Request: fold
Amino acid sequence: MAELSIKLKIGNREYPMRVDAKDEERIRKAGKAINEKIKSYRERFGIDDNQDLLAMVAFDCLVEKMKNDEQSATTDEAALSQLHQLNQLLSDSL
Reply:
């Protein structure tokens, strides 16, 4: 897969990186989402220190990821339980 050289601006800094072409859109969306969260925290809390803002965004993103992981695990367990029940019904009918 072809790699692209891009520059991603997060906060007040530019970060050069090499990414697979198929991942470019996702990476740019992630950068945009980070910048929007930084802006939101800056406006809500009146914080100007970029390091504090980035730490808050990182913390918020990790909490969101943990929540999504927990929900995914619960969904996976429910799906496996239903598949087991369906498998049992099919086995019983044969």
Observations:
- The longest strand covers residues 3-10.
- Residues 50-93 form the longest helix (44 residues).
- DSSP finds two helices and two strands in the chain.
